[in-house]
């Protein structure tokens, strides 16, 4: 297969690359010739994905990094491993993240701390480490995975929604700081996707999980396209854009109530009829 030269000689680092949006990002970058640094907890799945894409698209290099970004030491370890390998990261995709379903007062303190470490602190640490190098070279791209919950509260997933609000605010602020450089920052804010997210969060019985779900390929393509164009915020799909617009019109209490309705558990029959 003839190699697309758009990303020839460049490297992307993708966290949470073993499934869902991360896997689809890996496919898109590989198709355009980018070398891959794939990060996740599951080594076997990463190797199957990475080396399969390397063979298919004749990539020069694929680096597999097994790491749990809910651990405070992981971002620095990832950065050190990449630097030791002599790899220059041209694009950083902070895709790894997790949710946790239930009333805030009933969930364990540690589960919320782990979520914030993964969704917020590790994302900031990786960005801090790699953006310094990008700024020095005056070239690079960063994509941070937000959510439609970045712009609305999320009762029954309160810590998750707040973490994604942080991601959007952080991305917008960093983009402004870097606007006179050749380093861009994009926040991808998708609606519910057909991934393992709801199952892992314990929210697979909710209305949101059993409603309209965007396919990972669609979300990744929109984010990839927006990032390549240097867009600041990418919301996927016309319905999601209308939902985002409505949050500026509806009273805050009504937005929160709507979000809570979407997170209610539905019956088995309702799930079958979706």
UniProtKB/TrEMBL annotation:
Top EC group: oxidoreductase
ATP-binding is among the record's keywords: no
UniProt entry keywords in alphabetical sequence: Oxidoreductase
UniProt xrefs under InterPro entries: NAD(P)-bd_dom_sf, Sc_DH/Rdtase_CS, SDR_fam
EC number: 1.-.-.-
Annotated PROSITE patterns: ADH_SHORT
One Pfam match: adh_short
Top-rank taxon, per record: Bacteria
Signal peptide positions (record): none
GO molecular function: oxidoreductase activity
UniProt-listed PANTHER family: DEHYDROGENASE/REDUCTASE SDR FAMILY MEMBER 7B, SHORT-CHAIN DEHYDROGENASE-RELATED
Family classification: Belongs to the short-chain dehydrogenases/reductases (SDR) family.
Protein name per Swiss-Prot or TrEMBL: SDR family NAD(P)-dependent oxidoreductase
Organism: Pontibacter silvestris
């Amino acid at each position: 297969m003839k190699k697309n030269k758009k990303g020839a000689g460049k490297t992307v680092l993708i966290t949470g690359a073993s499934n869902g949006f991360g896997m689809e990002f890996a496919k898109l970058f590989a198709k355009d010739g980018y070398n891959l640094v794939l990060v996740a907890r599951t080594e076997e799945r990463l190797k199957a994905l990475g080396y399969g894409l390397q063979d298919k698209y004749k990539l020069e290099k694929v680096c597999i990094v097994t790491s749990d970004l809910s651990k405070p030491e992981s971002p620095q370890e990832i950065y050190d491993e990449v630097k030791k390998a002599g790899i220059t990261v041209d694009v950083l995709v902070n895709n790894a993240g997790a949710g946790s379903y239930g009333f805030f007062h009933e969930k364990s303190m540690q589960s919320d701390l782990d979520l914030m470490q993964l969704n917020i602190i590790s994302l900031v640490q990786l960005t801090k480490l790699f953006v310094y190098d990008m700024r020095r070279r005056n070239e690079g791209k960063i994509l941070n995975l937000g959510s439609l919950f970045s712009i609305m509260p999320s009762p029954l997933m309160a810590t998750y929604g707040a973490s994604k609000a942080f991601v959007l605010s952080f991305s917008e602020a960093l983009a402004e700081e870097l606007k006179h450089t050749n380093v861009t920052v994009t926040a991808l804010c998708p609606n519910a996707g057909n991934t393992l997210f709801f199952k892992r969060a314990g929210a697979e019985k909710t209305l949101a999980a059993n409603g309209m779900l965007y396919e990972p390929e669609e979300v990744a393509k929109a984010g990839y396209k927006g990032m390549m164009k240097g867009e600041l915020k990418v919301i996927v799909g016309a319905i999601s854009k209308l939902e985002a617009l409505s949050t500026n019109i509806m009273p805050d209490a009504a937005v929160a109530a709507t979000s809570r309705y979407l997170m209610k558990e539905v019956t088995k029959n309702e799930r079958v009829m979706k």
